[in-house]
C-alpha cells in the first residue's frame, strides 16, 4: 500500500494554475524533507521541488518563480502551488522522500493544453 496520496491535478490551459496536495507525510527523525517529483511517459522521474522541516525550499530551474512548495505538519500534508503553467509541465506528479523511501503513490495527472 502506498504511503502517500497525491491529488489536485487536472486539465488546465497554458497560464493557468493548480494546487497539488500530498497526504500522509511522515514526521520523524529519519525524514528531513519531502519532495515533489514528476514523470513524463518515457522519461525518468525528475525532482520538481523540495521542502525541509526547517522551512528551506528548493526548486528545479524549470519551475522557479512559478511553483511554490509548502507544508502543513498538523495535517501531514505538503502542497505544490503551480502558477503560469506551461505545456511542458504536463506529467504525473508524485511526492516522496529523496532517495525514495516509500512505495510510490498513484500520483496525480497534470495536463496543460489549450
Arithmetic mean pLDDT: 94
Overall outline: globular
Give the termini distance in whole angstroms: 35 Å
How are strands sequenced across the largest beta sheet? Answer: 2-10-9-4-5-6
Outline the structure in words.
- With 114 residues, the protein is mainly β.
- Helix content is 0%, strand content 46%.
- It is built from no helices and ten strands.
- The strands form two sheets. A six-stranded mixed sheet has the order 2-10-9-4-5-6, with no helix packed on it. Strands 1-3-8-7 form a four-stranded antiparallel sheet, with no helix packed on it.
- Strand 7 and strand 8 form a beta hairpin.
- The protein is globular, with a radius of gyration of 13 Å.
- The protein starts with a strand and ends with a strand.
- The mean pLDDT is 94.
Observed structural traits:
114 residues, mainly beta, six-stranded mixed beta sheet, four-stranded antiparallel beta sheet, 10 strands, globular
Amino acid at each position: 500500500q502506498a504511503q502517500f496520496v497525491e491529488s489536485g491535478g487536472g486539465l488546465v490551459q497554458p497560464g493557468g494554475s493548480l494546487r497539488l496536495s500530498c497526504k500522509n507525510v511522515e514526521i520523524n527523525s529519519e525524514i528531513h524533507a519531502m519532495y515533489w517529483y514528476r514523470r513524463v511517459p518515457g522519461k525518468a522521474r525528475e525532482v520538481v521541488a523540495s521542502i525541509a522541516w526547517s522551512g528551506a525550499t528548493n526548486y528545479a530551474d524549470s519551475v522557479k518563480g512559478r511553483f511554490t512548495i509548502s507544508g502543513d505538519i498538523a495535517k501531514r500534508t505538503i502542497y505544490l502551488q503551480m502558477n503560469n503553467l506551461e505545456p511542458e509541465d504536463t506529467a504525473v506528479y508524485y511526492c516522496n522522500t529523496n532517495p525514495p523511501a516509500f512505495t510510490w503513490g498513484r500520483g496525480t495527472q497534470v495536463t496543460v493544453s489549450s
